[in-house]
Amino acid sequence: MKIAADLQQALAMRARDGAAGRTTARHLAAAEGWRVDDVLCTFGPRDQPFEERHGSVCIAVVAAGSFGYRSEAGRELMTPGSLMLGNAGACFECGHRHGAGDRCLSFHYTPAWFERLAADLGVRSGSLAFRATRVPPTRRLAPVVARAMAGAAAPAGVAWHELAVQLAAATLAVMNEHEKGRATSHASRGTATAWSRVAQTVQLIEAMPGEDHTLATLAARAGVSEFYFLRTFSQVTGITPHQYVLRTRLRAAALRLRRPEAGGTTVLDIALDCGFNDVSNFNHAFRAEFGMSPRAWRAASQGPSASVSAADAVTAEPPGTPRA
Question: Where are the alpha helices (DSSP H) in the chain?
Answer without folding.
Answer: 2-17, 111-121, 142-153, 160-180, 192-207, 215-222, 226-237, 241-257, 267-273, 279-290, 294-300, 310-315
